[in-house]
Amino acid sequence: MQEFDDIYNKEITKKYHNHENKRLSKRKNRKRAMGAGRYFKLDVKNRFLMLLVYYRLYITYTLAGFLFDLDQSNVYRDIQKIEGLIRKCLPIPQKIYKLTKRLQTPEEVEQCFPAGFLAFIDSTEQQIPRPKNKRKRKAYYSGKKKSHTVKTQLVVNNRGFIIHKVDHKKGRRHDYDIYKKNHPLVPKDVVNVFDLGYLGVEKDYPEQPSSLPNRKKRHQDLSKDERYYNKDHSKRRIVIEHTICRLKKYRILSEVFRNNLRKYDKVSDIVAGLVNYRIINHYC
Predict the structure, then answer these.
(1) Which domain holds residue 194?
(2) Residues 6 or more apart in contact with residue 248 via CB below 8 angstroms
(3) Could you tell me if 151 and 125 are in contact, meaning their C-beta atoms sit under 8 angstroms apart?
(4) 139 DSSP assignment
């Protein structure tokens, strides 16, 4: 409740009027004065609450309308009109990444990558409805999940704070292929920690320190030291799995994504910002 009140009182109330003026002034050839037309039945605070309930539970618009005494068409309108504002009020990865690219001194790097100068990189998948188009079905089909999916690559620090997030990609693409075409720029002092899905990154990017587990060769067992290293590597890398778990607690990012895919990146930005906000409050 305290975090909800902080976001609303410190961020939303200050930016709401400017956001509404920009939104309403985009329309060209306006015949009526700005602000004419239907008013929102719910105030800003309740619309923000409705968005959080919808993202967390991923209920239907019909049920959301019943809970907030709205028609289901108004539920879609209210959520859609406030998403852009909420995105501006949260520490989304795009804002954080702009700061990390300008880090220079070790003290500045320590603030973004505390406890060891480590960056953990991995991708997560989410199922989407089966596309009607044959080419899209082939492009979005993931052999790993045996379904049609979209992929999102994340970069987190040692505390699980999301530093960078790539826009969603088609599920057919390999994790390492996404990294090669969308690899984030982190300070050279920071070690990138991967799983075996990114095998070959040390050769392709020798200028950036990387850490991968040892791969078992055919007909040859790993040595005791290699098994110990892999175990220690997994203990360190579990932080990004915990962050993905935090994202998946919002069922809009864990169940089949029923909304239009053009909206996916905005939704994932807001959820990532909410996760970052909770982590900031936990360590501050």
Answers:
(1) 93-283
(2) 124, 254
(3) yes
(4) H
Number of domains in the chain: 2
Residue 200 scores a pLDDT above 80: yes
CA distances from 227 to 190, 200, 241 (A): 24, 20, 20
Residue 70 shares a structural domain with residue 50: yes
Question: In the numeric block, which tokens belong to residue 257?
Answer: 């994504």
Q: Is the pLDDT of residue 37 over 80?
A: no
- Same domain? For 18 and 104 the reply is no
What's the chain's average pLDDT? 92
Specify whether the CB–CB gap between 192 and 174 falls below 8 A: no
In whole angstroms, give the CA distance from residue 9 to residue 3: 10
Structure tokens belonging to residue 95: 């804002």
Contact between 118 and 191 (Cβ < 8 Å): yes
pLDDT (mean) for 178-187: 90
The verdict on 15 and 64 lying in the same domain is yes
Contact 64, 75 (CB under 8 A): yes
Do 80 and 30 fall into the same domain? yes
